[in-house]
């Protein structure tokens, strides 16, 4: 009996011996979900700054959006907060107003911390100019002593380079370099030059690596580890329109004993890609690497949630996170990107972060309700297309408290050929779509007096990709259909002006035909609720009703989101006001702004 008990005791002891390391290993891992920063946040560059209360900070591209270069902070890699924008004043970079084409603007910032200073190096690109035109590439440096303070970010310091995706690097001998991607249509070269970041003075540019043969090697980042220089890059493109966004996108790496090369390619390249997979997360690439407080390595990259079909991805390129194994003297290994991830143990949840913007999260706490109270400003996450005309936006004006007054721009959302707007700009303000499923709505109080005066809501990607539902003054004979539930058989062929609802859009792919319907007589003169809903992964619905009676909301049209699945950016939902080229100046009053997240698709 004692012998059997002893045997049982030893079996239990052996079981515990094997269980403890397994349990320890499991408890040391963490589970997290991608994207960690959803919506239009491509080309992420992230750092860990122990000197700033052990905070992670990330910057991302903004193209023509303003404020530009959003900055997010986290202390636990799970909860991210918008703390501001590096580009937050027109005088920092006046030339953003003159960019032409929807793919122009701020490309691929690199954020670094050195000598108690935050450095952000990026490129303002005018994508309408030839690749060999040096004026196409305006490479710039911003610096700040405090990333939480908007006015701490300097005006742009300019430097010369015929290329983009520039980054700073400080070597162990005290020399400073800038690395960048040469205009790939001329030559697929990753190049380097010594630089003075305070003045923008650069030395001779020399090629340090050509990549592995994939199209458009870009996004270079150099890391000094274990006495070797590792050069991370993005390559590959499956798009006939633009680089850096195709399903063949990948992350490659090379290393050298010297910062200037020669660089030896990793035989196991690419080290991260979802090309040729059925994953919902596609176009994975343009990565950056950083360590946490425990010495563990992490990586961020861009990705689109589209599946290999690459048709429906209105949120564009988002920021995803992955764990990285990087043993001494070896090549880094990056965990493939999925919706549900496992990685190193993350720091405990910590929401002690300042900054004016919202947290990136889901559920009820992420509901975005703005009442435009007196004395308040537009929220930090509200965004314009290029620089706004400030006088066109007034929060809680004297004549209409708790509303946002919009003064119409002469140009509508398409403006000049879908590419250019000029200094007069467009009256539009929105927020990023950050959820697969959502409901967005506003109340519009608008009494136009001149033909083609219009105000409404838009799902806006770029000037040449947007879907709009507006209230507009049109001749009665311009009606194309009746509002659902108001099937009047009377046809008014007169030219008298009446308030209409109008759906129309702009895209490189087919969209529903333009539709106009007269506003029901009993609604005229009352505030009207306009609503956009993403009820599934492929379509938006556009609805309207009197603001005082939600039960009377009518859905006018469904539109596929493939119309907004294109290019470099991601969709915004917001409001606009325009005279459509006329002389109208009737303001629109926006109230009860609501964005309700209703679900994320990750697989």
Principal-axis shape equals elongated
Helix fraction? under 10%
Structural class: mainly beta
CATH-wise, what's the superfamily of the largest domain? Glycosyl hydrolase domain, family 43
Number of domains: 2
Radius of gyration: 26 Å
Average pLDDT figure = 92
Q: What share of residues are in beta strands? A: 35-45%
Alpha-carbon distance between the two ends: 55 Å
Query: CATH fold name of the largest domain, please?
Result: Tachylectin-2, Chain A
Q: Outline the low-pLDDT stretches.
A: 1-27, 238-243
- What does the main sheet amount to? 8 strands, antiparallel
| Strand segment count | 41
Question: What is the level-2 CATH architecture name of the largest domain?
Answer: 5 Propeller
Look at the structure and give the CATH class of the largest domain: Mainly Beta
Helical stretch count?
1
Signal peptide: 1-25
GO molecular function, one term: hydrolase activity, hydrolyzing O-glycosyl compounds
Site (Important for catalytic activity, responsible for pKa modulation of the active site Glu and correct orientation of both the proton donor and substrate): 165
Active site: 53 (proton acceptor), 218 (proton donor)
């Amino acid at each position: 009996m004692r012998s059997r008990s002893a045997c049982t005791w030893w079996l239990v002891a052996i079981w515990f011996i094997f269980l403890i390391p397994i349990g320890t290993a499991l408890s040391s891992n963490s589970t997290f979900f991608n994207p960690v920063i959803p919506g239009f946040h491509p080309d992420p560059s992230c750092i860990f700054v122990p000197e700033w209360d052990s905070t992670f900070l990330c910057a991302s591209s903004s193209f023509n959006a303003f404020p530009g270069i959003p900055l997010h902070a986290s202390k636990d890699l799970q909860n991210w907060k918008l703390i501001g924008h590096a580009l937050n004043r027109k005088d920092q970079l006046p030339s953003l107003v003159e960019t032409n084409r929807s793919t122009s603007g701020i490309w691929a910032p690199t954020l670094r911390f050195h000598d108690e200073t935050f450095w952000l190096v990026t490129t303002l690109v005018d994508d309408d100019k030839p690749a060999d035109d040096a004026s196409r590439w305006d490479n710039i440096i911003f610096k700040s002593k405090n990333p939480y303070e908007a006015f701490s970010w300097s005006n742009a310091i300019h430097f010369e380079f015929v290329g983009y995706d520039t980054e700073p690097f400080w070597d162990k001998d005290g020399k400073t370099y800038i690395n960048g991607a040469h205009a790939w249509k001329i030559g697929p070269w990753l190049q380097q030059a010594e630089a003075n970041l305070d003045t923008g003075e650069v030395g001779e540019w020399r090629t340090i690596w050509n990549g592995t043969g994939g199209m458009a090697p870009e996004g270079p980042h150099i890391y000094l580890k274990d006495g070797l220089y590792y050069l991370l890059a993005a390559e590959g493109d499956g798009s006939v329109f633009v680089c850096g966004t195709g399903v063949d996108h990948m992350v490659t790496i090379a290393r050298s004993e010297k910062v200037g090369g020669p660089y030896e390619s990793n035989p196991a390249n690419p080290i991260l890609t979802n090309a040729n997979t059925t994953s919902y997360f596609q176009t994975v690439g343009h990565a950056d690497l950083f360590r946490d407080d425990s010495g563990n390595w992490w990586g961020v990259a861009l990705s689109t949630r589209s599946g290999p079909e690459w048709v429906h991805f209105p949120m564009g390129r988002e920021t995803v996170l992955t764990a990285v194994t990087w043993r001494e003297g070896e090549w880094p290994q990056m965990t493939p990107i999925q919706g549900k991830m496992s990685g190193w143990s993350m720091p405990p949840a910590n929401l002690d972060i300042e900054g004016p913007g919202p947290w990136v999260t889901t559920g009820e706490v992420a509901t975005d309700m703005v009442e435009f109270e007196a004395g308040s400003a537009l929220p930090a996450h509200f965004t314009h297309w290029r620089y706004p005309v400030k006088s066109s936006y007034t929060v809680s004006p004297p004549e209409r408290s708790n509303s946002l007054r919009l003064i119409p721009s002469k140009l509508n959302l398409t403006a000049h050929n879908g590419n250019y707007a000029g200094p007069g700009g467009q009256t539009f303000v929105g927020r990023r779509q950050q959820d697969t499923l959502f409901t967005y709505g506003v109340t519009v109080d608008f009494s136009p007096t001149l033909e083609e005066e219009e105000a409404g809501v838009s799902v806006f990607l770029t000037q040449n990709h947007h879907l709009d539902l507006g209230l507009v003054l049109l001749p009665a004979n311009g009606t194309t259909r009746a509002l659902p539930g108001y099937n009047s058989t009377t046809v008014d062929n007169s030219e008298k002006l009446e308030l209409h609802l109008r759906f129309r859009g702009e895209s490189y792919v087919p969209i529903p035909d333009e539709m106009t319907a007269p506003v029901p007589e009993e609604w005229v003169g009352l505030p009207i609720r306009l609503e956009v809903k993403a009820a599934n992964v492929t379509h938006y619905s556009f609805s309207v009703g009197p603001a005082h009676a939600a039960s009377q909301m009518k859905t006018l049209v469904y539109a596929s989101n493939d119309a907004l699945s294109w290019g470099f950016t991601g969709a915004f939902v917001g409001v606009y006001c325009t005279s459509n080229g006329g002389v109208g100046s009737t303001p629109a009053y926006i109230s009860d702004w609501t964005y309700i997240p209703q679900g994320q698709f990750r697989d």
